[in-house]
Design goal:
Blueprint (H helix, E strand, L loop, with lengths): L22 H31 L6 H23 L12 H11 L2 H14 L4 E8 L4 E8 L10 E7 L6 H4 L3 H8 L5 H14 L1
Antiparallel strand pairs: 1-2, 1-3
Helix pairs in contact: 1-2, 3-4
Length: about 200
């Protein structure tokens, strides 16, 4: 059993998500930025392993904050990669999920505008995600600051976009809006629907 985190393999080549990402941007994002969260999370886990075998003193508050940040970065990036595809087709969205989105936001166009604005307006470095509440059966958009702030506890993420500057700075400079709008054309609705059916069945 592997007791440490691993950088996931992508289901597409670095060159296949243009113009959302150039090959250079995607490679740096995945192999440098995401890898750093994996490496730092594993480093924190090794510190925890040392604690149980020795009397070393650590700054526990700082360690737990760092671990939360790095695990969050790894998990959210892994979800992000998997909800992207070179061949997006909104007709693949689960009809039941579509009905719930329409019931919550009015229509798919309004949902698109709401979701993209959440990504554009998130403060500083953060994310926008479509999540699902098993208690109210509502699909709810949330903004996540950094990797671990403002997350709705226990809400399964169906769709997520990385709005950190490191996600787009090579290709878009400071034009977050252009990057966010391009994202919509690369959503893997089949994966989003799969996540919805999983959480529906759990509920």
């Amino acid at each position: 059993m592997n007791n440490f985190y691993q950088l996931p393999q992508l289901k597409y080549d670095y060159s296949q998500l243009s113009p959302l990402f150039s090959g250079e941007q995607l490679e740096v994002h995945h192999s440098k930025h995401h890898r750093s969260y994996v490496d730092k999370a594993n480093q924190d886990l090794r510190i925890l392993d040392d604690i149980k075998n020795s009397e070393i003193k650590i700054d526990e508050k700082a360690l737990l904050k760092d671990l939360s940040f790095n695990i969050g970065g790894h998990v959210l990036h892994s979800l992000f990669w998997d909800n992207l595809t070179p061949k997006s087709d909104i007709n693949l969205v689960d009809n039941e999920l579509k009905d719930k989105i329409v019931n919550q936001y009015g229509n798919m166009g309004k949902f698109k505008d709401f979701f993209l604005e959440a990504a554009i307006s998130v403060e500083g470095s953060g994310w926008a995600a479509l999540s699902f509440c098993k208690l109210t059966h509502r699909p709810l958009v949330m903004q996540i600051e950094k990797h671990n702030l403002n997350i709705y506890p226990m809400f399964k993420i169906l769709l997520i976009i990385d709005a950190w500057e490191h996600a787009y700075y090579i290709d878009y400079k400071n034009k977050r809006k252009d990057y966010v709008e391009s994202f919509w054309e690369f959503i893997d609705w089949k994966e989003v629907s799969k996540r919805y059916r999983e959480v529906r069945d759990e509920a």
